[in-house]
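> example.struct
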């Protein structure tokens, strides 16, 4: 069995890997490519990459808990507050993990080639498009 610190380190490594890929892509843009700006944008995008699966899991779970779907449908203030707190906590954690790279743009150098940036863009796009589609199809199949 893998110990908790090793699992946590693996999550940190994954977050850092995603961030560095997005940071390299941001540094190579024609605008907003200064290290501070690129770092801020990559932090937000990293949060999106982590938040999309989290949102999909929460939507899927709400399908299995009786009455949970009504909180989403009726925009229950408590449910909205819980979601906002989860997003804020996750984004603060991502910022804490990645903001030190603001002064180290060379850390993203391995991902700055054109092919690496294209791979990052395609992966980001596929995740943002396919995940909601997969959740929607899965939920449709569960309901019918």
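> example.seq
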């Amino acid at each position: 069995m893998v110990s908790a610190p090793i699992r946590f380190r693996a999550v940190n490594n994954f977050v850092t890997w995603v961030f560095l890929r997005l940071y390299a892509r941001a540094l190579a843009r024609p605008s907003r490519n200064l290290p501070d700006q690129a770092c801020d944008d990559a932090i937000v995008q990293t949060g999106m990459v982590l938040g999309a699966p989290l949102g999909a899991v929460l939507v899927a779970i709400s399908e299995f808990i009786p009455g949970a779907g009504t909180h989403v449908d009726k925009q229950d203030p408590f449910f909205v507050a819980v979601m906002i707190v989860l997003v804020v906590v996750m984004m603060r954690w991502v910022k804490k993990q990645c903001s030190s790279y603001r002064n180290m743009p060379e850390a993203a150098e391995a991902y700055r080639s054109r092919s690496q940036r294209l791979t990052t863009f395609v992966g980001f796009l596929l995740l943002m498009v396919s995940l909601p589609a997969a959740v929607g199809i899965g939920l449709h199949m569960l309901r019918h």
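> remarks
The chain has five helices and no strands.
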